[in-house]
Amino acid sequence: MTIWDEIKELFLPKDELDKRKEQSYKDAKNKEKDLLDKLYKLDKEYTDSLPKKEEKDYHSMFEPFSKKEKVDNTLSNDELDNLAYKKAYKDYDKKLNNIDKIYNSNEKKARENEEKVKQTGKEILSNLDKQFAINKNNIDTKMQKQGLGFSSIKDNLHRENKKNINEKKQETNNTTKKYLENINSLIGDILNEKNDAKSNLEKESKENYQDIFNDLVKDRDSEKQKINDYNEKLKHEKIAYDNKVERQIDALKEKDRKKELEQEQITRENENKYGYTGDKKVNYDKRLNLAIEFYDSLPKELALRVANNNLELKRYLGAYYYPLVKHIESRYERKKIFS
């Protein structure tokens, strides 16, 4: 600031003077953004050059939860239905064939007896016809010898012979019919019994199937419930185990964090005392030089106001922050004539 500027300030109202100072501060803060951006880039450049911090795998320090869930391999209703059907109908065809074998054999015997009765009836009727002819011939011969070939006696004997033969034929037909009716009734009974046996076999098989299916479903549901109960219990055990591990990991992390903070504090104290070294010193020297260049471009009072308690600046300059402030404070600046 020139002497002429100092003279002009003497005639400015206090509020106008304060206003100008505030505007100068705002302008300086805006210009400082360019400095902070450069410092940010240097900070990133240094940070990126550091060896990558290896993340500690805390979980590998603990045994994983070893118990395994039980897999539900129980059968579905369709599968149980198929299994129950196979068990219930395992010997079904064999039993069905056995029924056919027994009753078909009985039916065959009855059919054979039927044919025998028919054949016997035919033979008896045939023999009666033969007997009728023999009797007729005997009557004719006898009557001829007695000279009664054209007598009424002969006619009566023929009628009597025919009557007797017809009566025996009728008796034979009635007997044959009765036997055949009995045999047909027996065959009907055999067929009905066979059908009943098959129906009973089917009914028993269906009932057996239903009982087996119900038992299989009951056992399956019981097993499924045991699996679900076990897995649910295991789920809670795992949650409890995981929570315990996480608590222990949190404790280890906190311990390591405190240890790291202590080490960082020791490092800061050493750097504040002895300064930076190596690549870090080169990088921070660049930061300090940029900061000095910028704040030296500002009036001392304004530079101190902008730099003081500047947290962002502190973060970027680290141990060099206070040397910067001292540098600004130590700058020579001509005293105002009219101060």
| Individual helix count | 9
Structural class: mainly alpha
Stretches with pLDDT under 50, minimum 5 residues: none
The helical percent reads over 70%
**What is the residue-averaged pLDDT?**
90
The rough form would be described as: rod-shaped
Strand content: under 5%
**Biggest β-sheet, characterized?**
none
Tell me the series of helices and strands, N- to C-terminal: HHHHHHHHH
Count of DSSP strands: 0
End-to-end distance: 13 Å
Radius of gyration: 64 Å
List keywords for this structure.
339 residues; mainly alpha; 9 helices
Describe it for me?
With 339 residues, the protein is mostly helical. It is built from nine helices and no strands. α2 (14-49) runs parallel beside α8, α3 (77-88) runs antiparallel to α5 and α6 (278-295) runs parallel beside α9 (321-330). The longest helix has 123 residues, at 152-274. The protein starts with a helix and ends in a 9-residue tail after the last helix.
How would you briefly describe this protein structure?
The protein has 339 residues and is an all-alpha fold. The protein contains nine helices and no strands. The protein has helices spanning 3-10, 14-49, 77-88, 92-145, 152-274, 278-295, 300-307, 311-317, 321-330.
Topology record:
Elements: H1 3-10, H2 14-49, H3 77-88, H4 92-145, H5 152-274, H6 278-295, H7 300-307, H8 311-317, H9 321-330
Helix pairs in contact: 2-6, 2-7, 2-8, 3-5, 4-5, 6-9
